[in-house]
Amino acid sequence: MAADLIQRSQRADFLGKIKVKLAKAIKENPELVPFLLRLALNDAITYDKETKTGGPNGSIRLSEELKRPENVKLDSAVTFLEGLKKEIDEESKGGPISWADLIQIGGQAAAKRTFLDAAIKKCGGNEEKGNFLYNAYGSNGQWGFFDKQFGRSDKPEPDPEGRVLLWEEAPIAEITNRFSKVGLGPRQVAVLSAFLGTDQAAMDAKLAQDSELARWVKKYQDSRETVSQTDYEVDLIGAFTRLSILGQSINYEAYTYPPKKFKLKL
User: Fold this and answer.
1) Does the pLDDT at position 48 exceed 90?
2) I need a surface site. Which of 6, 40, 175, 189 has the fewest CB within 10 A?
3) What does the pLDDT average to over 216-245?
């Protein structure tokens, strides 16, 4: 029991430090937010239930996969994370962070940044008031299950082609079908619209052309107009969490290490 508590503490401490680094770096590079979201989506949605292959395994970092048409412009997000990974690995006591974990945590940090930016906007651009609003009424406490899924494994080879779409160009039926194949429905498609296109409003308008998606698009647009945008944030976190662990067997001992031993002087 004591050893388990120590490991959980080590993992939580390591994850906390990663989040701080990501939040600071993303604040300094806000233009990368949509690409970090897309990177997390495109790495995860390669999962195939029949063959149990693909998923959020970090393979999108590999040049063969990164150069595919659907991943154009995501190289900037990979380069960004690569620089952070070097810093994280140098400071880690429990081994290097996997690309699979870093890509999904990067997506989480980018999503949080969109939530915070929305709060700041509602406060007339006042960052201090926006931070207070988000911390007081936002969804920060809803990430608990996501945070526990820390210990994804990397795959050394690229995932098969043909499992990821050019989301902004693909017909709506193909988008919903691709999501359906990984167990996600119209509700999840709508709430993850920011992951599908660099212009969320334009993607919402596209998805709303489908009668089945339209009600969900409106639900989340209406939610984003509220002070706390609770429905939108909570449902996005739930959908993203499901996406972020597709096909993964989480190693809950990852990043742990033997605690320092102290000699007692008698």
Assistant:
1) yes
2) 6
3) 97
pTM: 0.95
Residues in the chain: 266
> For residue 1, is pLDDT > 60?
no
* Cβ atoms of 60 and 43 closer than 8 Å: yes
Distance CA 133, CA 137 (A): 6
User: CA-to-CA distance for 257 and 254, rounded, in angstroms?
Assistant: 9
Kindly state the helix (H) or strand (E) to which residue 110 belongs, with its residue range: helix 99-122
Tell me the pLDDT band of 170, cut-offs 50, 70 and 90.
very high
Say how far apart CA 153 and CA 245 lie, in whole Å: 11
- Give CA–CA dist 25/79, Å, rounded: 13
- Confidence tier at 260 by pLDDT (50, 70, 90): confident
Q: Using CA of residue 169, residue 175, residue 179, residue 184, what is the dihedral sign?
A: positive
Burial of 64 (0-12, 13-18, 19+ CB in 10 A): exposed
